[in-house]
Design brief:
alpha/beta; single chain; 13 strands; 4-stranded antiparallel β-sheet; Arginase, Chain A; 9-stranded parallel β-sheet; globular
């Protein structure tokens, strides 16, 4: 089992804890050390796994060390959480990058079987690919969300790297990708051909300006996600306090933490990865807070997935000029969903319906005879 490959956390990171209050996270989570060994997974809800695979990373030469994040994260105070959390240590690089993919897939598969949510930290964004392969093993359709400045497609079908892992996912068989959504893309980092491909496949994308104008529009997208990956190149330079590692436009520190909390509070998210991390002291602090907010979100999950609208949901029917739409609002969380119907059925026995997370604004638009774009894309993918 690949979990046995995980290297313990360097105990040098723990010595200083003796002078800190007993309430800090470092004293309230299980930690894989040389002396204690790998923690028992039974009863765990969230685990941290460090990745050092940088052969496809934008920051390969910087050699980011996950232990630098740990020093900051362990000092934070937990919320009023009743979650059992563990730090499982670091996965060493395989002889070939494919060996690293295989180990991540094995770890992801085992943790998903146990309903444990792993937070993968470090390495390049293509390390999300083996998490997709986990869903292939389960023969389960998957929704992927990337917070990224680019779409990560390539014109070379067989090329897989931090810039092009999505091409590999689309072409890999069996294809279990239901939807891919990019949050925060910047058009000048995206080829026209990539945008055309997104449109052709009816994938969703929210531009950086739209996202920053109203961060809440990301909530229904993340609510429907199974795998979420953050490419930290999406940050603006002021978010990491180093112009040499950032860019003039990008996601700020508050917004990235809000996105992390939305990902955590999603009842569906099973894998969370943070990749392409630049080695700066400010980044370590921000990374620790991103992980903190994800855990906070997991604690406050509403447990509304899978959804049963027969109890605790209000139904709203809207008649448009050429379409009838049905919306549901949860009385518990006040969140909204749209109903999708497969129109390609031959009879009522094969007719299928599913629900798509949305906002109240989508309902308001439907009243004005405007079909929500996410609903349109989802129907095209479904039919």
């Amino acid at each position: 089992m690949s979990l046995e490959l995980l290297l313990p956390v360097d105990e040098e990171n723990l010595k200083w804890q003796s002078i800190l209050p007993k309430q800090i996270l470092g004293k309230n989570i299980l930690i894989h050390t040389k002396n204690s060994g790998l923690p028992d997974l039974k009863g765990l809800k969230i685990v941290i796994v460090g990745l050092s695979e940088t052969r496809n990373s934008f920051f390969e030469s910087d050699n980011y060390k996950v232990d630098n994040f740990r020093k900051v994260f362990y000092e934070l105070y937990p919320g009023n959480w009743s979650l059992k959390i563990a730090d499982l240590g670091n996965l060493p690089n395989g002889a070939k990058i494919e060996d690293t993919y295989f180990a991540i897939k094995e770890i992801g598969y085992h943790l998903k079987q146990m309903n444990i949510i792993p937070i993968f930290i470090g390495g390049s964004h293509d390390l999300i690919f083996p998490l997709y392969q986990v869903y292939q093993e389960f023969e389960q359709l998957v929704n992927m969300v990337s917070v990224d400045r680019s779409f990560d497609f390539s014109q070379e079908d067989e090329l897989i790297s931090g810039r092009s892992y999505m091409s590999k996912i689309i072409m890999d068989k069996p294809n279990v990708l239901n939807n891919y959504t990019n949050l925060g893309y910047q058009s000048y980092y995206c080829a026209v051909e990539e945008k055309d491909l997104m449109d052709k496949l009816y994938f969703d994308g929210i531009r950086l300006g739209q996202l920053l104008d109203k961060i809440k529009i990301s909530e229904p997208v993340l609510r429907d996600a199974d795998i979420v990956g953050f490419d930290m190149k999406c940050l603006s330079w002021d978010a990491i306090a180093d112009p040499l590692k950032g860019q003039p436009n990008g996601i700020d520190s508050r917004s990235i933490c809000a996105l992390s909390r939305y990902a955590g509070i999603s009842d569906r998210v099973s894998f969370f990865g943070i990749y392409e991390i630049s080695p700066t002291p400010m980044m370590n602090q921000l990374l620790a807070q991103i992980v903190w907010y994800f855990i906070e979100g997991v604690y406050y999950r509403f447990n509304e997935y899978p959804i049963s609208v027969s109890n605790g949901f209000l139904k709203y029917s809207v008649t448009l000029s050429n379409q009838n739409l049905t919306f549901y609002r949860s009385e518990k969380s006040q969140r909204w969903w749209m109903e999708l119907t497969n129109d390609s059925y031959l009879d009522n026995k094969t007719k299928t319906t599913t629900l798509l997370a949305c906002t109240k604004e989508d309902y308001d638009s439907a009243i004005l005879d405007i079909i929500p774009q996410r609903w349109y894309n989802a129907i095209k993918r479904l039919n």
